[in-house]
UniProtKB/TrEMBL annotation:
<keyword id="KW-0009">Actin-binding</keyword>
<keyword id="KW-0518">Myosin</keyword>
<dbReference type="GO" id="GO:0005524">
    <property type="term" value="F:ATP binding"/>
</dbReference>
<dbReference type="GO" id="GO:0016459">
    <property type="term" value="C:myosin complex"/>
</dbReference>
<dbReference type="GO" id="GO:0003779">
    <property type="term" value="F:actin binding"/>
</dbReference>
<comment type="similarity">
    <text>Belongs to the TRAFAC class myosin-kinesin ATPase superfamily. Myosin family.</text>
</comment>
<protein>
    <recommendedName>
        <fullName>Myosin motor domain-containing protein</fullName>
    </recommendedName>
</protein>
<keyword id="KW-0505">Motor protein</keyword>
<dbReference type="GO" id="GO:0003774">
    <property type="term" value="F:cytoskeletal motor activity"/>
</dbReference>
<feature type="domain" description="Myosin motor">
    <location>
        <begin position="1"/>
        <end position="98"/>
    </location>
</feature>
<dbReference type="InterPro" id="IPR001609">
    <property type="entry name" value="Myosin_head_motor_dom-like"/>
</dbReference>
<dbReference type="Pfam" id="PF00063">
    <property type="entry name" value="Myosin_head"/>
</dbReference>
<dbReference type="InterPro" id="IPR027417">
    <property type="entry name" value="P-loop_NTPase"/>
</dbReference>
<keyword id="KW-0067">ATP-binding</keyword>
<keyword id="KW-0547">Nucleotide-binding</keyword>
């Protein structure tokens, strides 16, 4: 979400605003002693060092993006049934093709 790799924002269908995702914005958003870009670069580099392929690497990011979108999903109960269905408020997750 740092915007350091804009192509990831586009691929994951996410924004740079953490408040768009309740699952990640319920605590402290900014910590003065942590540089988010530096941490992202370190994580990205670690994935490479561990030997993940390019496809595996993007899948790791897509899984993270899917979880962020999943937190935005709303459900409604079907009338006279025990099942729930999507309320149609968050469809992006299904386009990530994990």
């Amino acid at each position: 979400m740092t915007g350091h790799k804009p192509e990831l924002l586009e691929a994951l269908l996410i924004t740079t605003n953490p408040y768009d995702y309740p699952m990640i914005s319920q605590g402290e958003i900014t910590v003065k002693s942590i540089d988010d870009v530096e941490e992202f670069i370190a994580t990205d580099t670690a994935i490479d060092i561990l030997g993940f392929s390019a496809d595996e690497k993007i899948s790791i990011y897509k899984l993270t993006g899917a979880m962020m979108h999943h937190g935005n999903m709303k459900f409604k109960q079907k009338q006279r049934e025990q099942q729930a269905e999507s309320d149609g408020t968050e469809d992006k997750m299904f386009y990530l093709h994990i």
